[in-house]
Structure formats: C-alpha cells, structure tokens
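Bumping my old thread because nobody answered last time. Still need a sequence for this structure:
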C-alpha cells in the first residue's frame, strides 16, 4: 500500500493537469493554439467562457470534497456529505427566500442568505446526529436523507406555490454551462476555505476523537465545531448559488483518499481537494462530450459515477471486514 501512494498521487496530479487542458479545448468553436494566437474572437471566448468554466469546476470540486471531509469529521461518520445532511437543501431554501423577498438581490446577498440557512440547517442536523446511538453508524446517513428530503420538499412546495419551480431546478441540478467571467469569482472563496481547513487540520483531527478527548487535550471543542460548520455552510451555499447542488463529491472522495493515505488529515487534505477537483472535472467533460454538442448536467453524470464509486467503497469495506 505505501508504494501505491506516490503512484496514486502522480496519477491524480497528472490527471488534473491533463483534464484542465482538455476542458479548455472542448466546445463547438475550435480552440487550437494557432487559432487562439491569430483570432481575437477565439481568445475572447477562452477568457470569457472556457477558462472561467474550467476554473469554476476545479474550485467547486476541491471545495465540496473538503466540505464533505470536514462534515464527516464533525459527525464522526464516513457516510455523510452536505447534500445528504440537508446542508445543500437549506442553502437552496435561503436562496428561495431572498428571491421572494428581494427579487433584485445580488449574488453576494443570496450567498449570505444561503450561508445563514445552510449553517442553521447543518447545526440542527449535527445536534440531532450526536444524539443517535454511535453503535448504529448507518442511522446518521439515513436520518440525513430524511432530513434533507423534508427541507427539499418544503423548497419545492414553496416554489410551486410561487411559480418558481423552474428557478429552483437550476439550484437542484448542478451544471456549469452558465458559468462566465463575472459570474464565478465568488467561488475563489472556496480556495480560502480549503486553505483554512488545512490550517486547522490538526485541531480537526483532535475534534474527530470526540468532545471528552478534545477537551482533555486542551482543545476548544465548541469553537472548532463552529468553525467547521461555517466552512461547510459557506462552501455548500456558494456551490448552490453559483452552479447548483452536486452530489457524491463530498462523500466518495474523502473515503477514497483515506483508503490510500490513511487518516493523517494534515497530509491527506490537499489530496482530497485535488482528487475532488479531478473527479468533478472528469465528470464535467463526460457530460459535455457524451451528447456533443449538447450537454448533460454534471450533477446527473456524478449521480451515476458517484453511486458506482460509493458501492465499490461499501463492498470493499465489507470484503476487508
């Protein structure tokens, strides 16, 4: 296993670079180097559409993977992620509320509202999850699915009553076709959240041992939990506001990386971000080429790829046991 880790790192890093370059070339218009150098329109298309989209995919994939990892640490359960704990649905509820009350609100205002509702929704989930019996680990993800489903149903009902179902559909089906320069820059906050998670990685590792052990080791457990909740809420709300809800990245990527690199959070965390970006970029490319020149939303592609990876993780865990 140790010998496989450097090889896996090389494959992931090389794959991310290669997929990044490939993503810039995929589209109806020709984006060859010769044409970019001689055609001002091609260069403009690259800078306004192709490059922002690719950067947005990388930032979103890295951020969602880190959000899933932090949430799994806070809940102390490997089978949760923001979409299956009501965080994404709570963020959508916040966006819907702002849209109804302040139709002309900016993306920044929608993000703030989505972050507040995502934080509240995740806090409620975490409070209830800690009361569930730790000997039944599958109760937490099952409760999360029900909890998120209830919030999602409320969002759908309100949208149906206010004739905003098509608007809500944009948030529930993650896709990057509408990402352009000027509409994705808020996603750079995700990079700051990734850096923050790496900075507090040691404290998150201690927090994963539980409240009693954390307090005994001198950690302010409540504060680190609050910081983790803020990171998860901000990442999830930004993703929902800009590109919509994207499943499975925060669920499968931390589990895949932990299989190869163990639970040393400080060293594994950057590779969780890189692997999340690589997985999302690969699925985005698949969605763009499988029905070219039309697109399949990346959330749909990840629903297939992610479920397959998750089943592989479950069966692999069972076989080792």
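Sorry it took so long. Here it is:
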């Amino acid at each position: 296993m140790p010998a496989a880790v450097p090889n896996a790192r090389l494959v992931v890093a090389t794959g991310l670079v290669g997929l990044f370059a490939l993503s810039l070339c995929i589209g109806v218009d020709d984006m060859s180097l010769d044409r970019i150098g001689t055609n001002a329109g091609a260069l403009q298309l690259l800078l306004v559409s192709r490059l922002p989209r690719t950067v947005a995919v990388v930032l979103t994939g890295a951020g969602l993977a880190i959000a899933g990892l932090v949430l799994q640490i806070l809940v102390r359960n490997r089978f949760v992620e923001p979409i299956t704990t009501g965080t994404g649905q709570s963020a959508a509820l916040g966006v819907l509320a702002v849209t109804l009350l302040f139709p002309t609100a900016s993306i920044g205002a929608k993000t703030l509202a989505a972050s507040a509702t995502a934080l509240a929704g995740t806090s409620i989930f975490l409070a209830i999850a800690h009361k569930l019996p730790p000997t039944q680990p599958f109760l937490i993800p099952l409760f999360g699915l029900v909890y998120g489903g209830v919030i999602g149903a409320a969002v759908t009902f309100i949208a149906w009553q206010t004739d905003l179902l098509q608007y809500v559909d944009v948030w529930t089906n993650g896709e990057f076709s509408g990402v352009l320069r000027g509409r994705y820059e808020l996603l750079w906050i995700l990079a700051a959240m990734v850096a923050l998670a790496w900075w507090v990685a040691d404290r998150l590792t201690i927090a994963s041992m539980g409240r009693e052990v954390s307090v005994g080791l001198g950690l302010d457990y409540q504060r680190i939990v609050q910081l983790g909740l803020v990171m998860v809420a901000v990442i999830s709300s930004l993703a929902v506001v800009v590109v919509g809800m994207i499943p499975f990245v925060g669920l499968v990527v931390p589990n895949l990386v932990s299989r190869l690199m163990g639970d040393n959070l400080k060293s594994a965390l950057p590779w969780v971000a890189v692997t999340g970006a690589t997985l999302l970029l690969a699925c985005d490319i698949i969605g763009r080429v499988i029905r070219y020149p039309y697109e399949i939303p990346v959330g749909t592609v990840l629903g297939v790829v992610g479920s397959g990876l998750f089943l592989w993780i479950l069966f692999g865990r069972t076989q080792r046991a």
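The chain has 14 helices and no strands. Let me know if any region looks off to you.
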